[in-house]
């Protein structure tokens, strides 16, 4: 699995318009094969900030997205607004497990792997 997460900062008076302009493209991107999540959302406390959160099944799915028309259209759409900064990274996931254990306790350690039993 691959997670893409980060922020884009726009001119504060344009951030909400950028979020709205991306709405339909985001919905259509969620329908792509291998797309598990695709969220571009405003920060309620920082007027210029938009958060990005995406989950992709694998590199092939993400690559197909990057090469496809929805990605190009999203870049063009968001490029029409005054962007102040971008800080977005991708992460390849090697272990995934619930935050809460059987007893409902949140755990920072990885408790379901063989090494941690």
Tags for this entry?
single chain; 117 residues; alpha+beta; Alpha-Beta Plaits; four-stranded antiparallel beta sheet
Explain the overall architecture:
The protein has about 120 residues and is an alpha+beta fold. It has one domain (about 1-95): Alpha-Beta Plaits, CATH 3.30.70. The chain has helices spanning about 15-30, 60-65, 70-80; strands spanning about 1-10, 35-40, 50-55, 85-90. A four-stranded antiparallel β-sheet has the order 2-3-1-4. A hairpin with a 6-residue loop joins strand 2 (about 35-40) and strand 3 (about 50-55). Helix 1 (about 15-30) runs antiparallel to helix 3.
Main beta sheet strand tally, sense and closure: 4 strands, antiparallel
The whole-number mean of residue pLDDT values reads 94
Percentage of residues in helical conformation: 25-40%
Strand neighbour order, sheet with most strands: 2-3-1-4
Parts with pLDDT < 50 across at least 5 consecutive residues: none
Class per helix and strand makeup: alpha+beta
* CATH architect. name: 2-Layer Sandwich
End-to-end CA span: 24 Å
**Residues in β-strands, percent:** 25-35%
Shape: globular
Radius of gyration: 17 Å
| Distinct helical segment count | 3
Number of strands: 4
> What's the order of the H and E elements?
EHEEHHE
Q: Can you tell me the CATH class?
A: Alpha Beta
CATH topology: Alpha-Beta Plaits
Domain count, please report it. Answer: 1
